[in-house]
Design brief:
The chain is mainly α and 462 residues long. The protein is 62% helix and 0% strand. The longest helix has 36 residues. InterPro entries: Mae1, SLAC1/Mae1/Ssu1/TehA, Voltage-dep_anion_channel_sf.
Length: 462
């Protein structure tokens, strides 16, 4: 069964305004104007009446017609099969694997260990691998059954910003492998991960520069539409430093030194790009007020660059003590100590900035608290992943300054973060059932900013 043209949304190809005849067809009545009567007993207009005259002369009939046709269209669309819903499985679903891997990373960094903590971290790690494979399969099915959506995903003003989420998810899995793998699989795994580290570094650079180049080549942006999501293409670079910090603790001196140099370089690129976009975000807030309620979860994206940089820089500075080559800059132990001291004190500034953005982002949600004020989107995972960076950076600062109080604060934040992860996952499942996501014009691939998503090559049938 095909959707009649009068049931399409205004603006869609082929749409026409509904008439009273459509009402009778829907309800099984006659389509002949002279023989049909409305539910109120009012005779419909004669053959010379037009939809425009109907609009002005019979407003009560018009409302009934619009209500009935809209209801029928909704009932038809409610029966969309999963093949059509997969069409809206966007790149943003990789934020789910970013958040899950981030939780595993946080559990590895907890300084106060207890029996079973590592097992919980491994559970999140393995779950993340399963979810990552699931995401790969689902988005591949989307592009296979709806090939027109592949190019559209790179041109859409919102969805393309989340393409690097797949690279971040891959990098997070590599980070978790370096954390949990060698103690269970053996040192051979380090050799594999070192190769994958450089593969991930290349992917991070390609994804970051590629998405920004596509953005700057295909669209013009206005400051009033700016959100911290613009930082997202830099995220693949921001987890290179924390990964390098973990690897540098277990590799031999030569390879550890190469890893640290590469990690410092790429981490610096990611943070500096983010810092420049920060300035645009602050200017937007100063001139345009807070973003719309539906986009405010994305404000937490601003927390991540600072948090990951602190965790990465402090971790790499600690690894440098065993990674620096002999007679480095004339005195290897002195060079390592200077690097460690400078990294710790510099990180205090950046750590404080991360908390500043966190409180600004949390405070912006004050007016959004309450039922029916915010509809779920996959950007809700911004409540989790960027804040995993804040927690790991808190643990790093606590360790660098030997502060037990800061480490305890980090543990409290960890508990809250895990509860938040369960909350967001539950809301995602609820949103799928309520058709708030994986649904036409509901996800990050909806028409916006003048961009029209390509229509299916075939009619929707049920």
């Amino acid at each position: 069964m095909h959707i009649p043209t009068h049931m399409l949304s205004p603006g869609q190809n082929g749409y026409r305004a509904p008439t009273v005849e459509d009402y009778h067809v829907q309800n099984g009545g006659s389509t002949t104007p002279n023989s049909a009567r409305t539910p109120n007993g009012v005779a419909p207009p004669n053959d010379h009446s037009t939809p425009n005259s109907l609009h002005h002369r019979l407003p009560h009939i018009r409302d009934q017609v619009n209500l009935s046709t809209t209801s029928l269209a909704r009932s038809i669309l409610d029966e969309l099969h999963w093949g059509e819903r997969i069409r809206h499985y966007t790149w943003t679903f990789f934020t789910m694997t970013m958040a899950t891997g981030g939780i595993s990373n946080v559990l590895y960094a907890v300084p106060f260990r207890f029996r079973g903590l590592e097992a919980i971290g491994i559970i999140f790690f393995l779950l993340n691998i399963v979810l990552f494979i699931f995401n790969i399969v689902m988005i591949s099915l989307r592009f296979y059954f709806h090939p027109e959506t592949f190019k559209a995903s790179f041109l859409h003003p919102t969805e393309r910003l989340f393409i690097p989420a797949a690279v971040v998810s891959f990098g997070t899995i590599l980070l978790n492998i370096s954390q949990y793998g060698p103690s269970h699989a053996g040192d051979w795994l380090n050799d594999v991960v070192v190769v994958l580290f450089w593969v991930d570094a290349g992917l991070a650079l390609t994804a970051s520069m590629g998405v920004y180049l596509i953005m700057w080549s295909t669209a013009s942006f206005t400051i009033e539409n700016m959100t911290p999501i613009w930082i997202f293409p830099a995220y693949p670079l921001l987890i290179i430093g924390p990964h390098a910090a973990v690897l540098s603790q277990t590799l031999e001196q030569r390879r550890a030194f190469d890893i640290i140099v590469g990690g410092f370089t790429l981490q610096g690129i990611g943070f500096m790009v983010s810092l420049m976009i920060y300035s645009a975000f602050i200017y937007r807030l100063m001139t345009q007020r807070l973003p719309q309620a539906s986009t405010r979860p994305g404000m937490f994206v601003s927390v991540g660059p600072c948090g990951f940089t602190v965790a990465g820089v402090i971790g790499m500075a600690e690894g440098a003590q065993r990674a620096l080559p002999p007679d480095f800059m004339g005195n290897t132990p002195m060079s390592a100590m200077i690097l460690k001291v400078i990294s710790a004190w510099m990180s205090l500034w950046i750590w404080g900035l991360a908390f500043w953005f966190f409180f600004i982002s949390a405070g912006a949600h004050w007016s959004c608290v309450g039922p029916h004020k915010m509809v779920f989107t996959m950007t809700w995972y911004s409540y989790v992943f960027p804040n995993t960076a804040l927690v790991t950076s808190t643990f790093a600062i606590g360790k660098a300054f030997n502060s037990r109080a800061i480490q305890i604060i980090g543990c409290v934040m960890t508990a809250i973060l895990i509860l938040t992860w369960f909350f967001v996952v539950g809301m995602m499942v609820r949103a799928i059932m309520l058709k708030q996501i994986l649904w036409p014009q509901k996800g990050e691939d909806k028409d916006e900013g003048g961009f029209k998503a390509p229509r299916p090559n075939r009619r929707i049938s049920v």
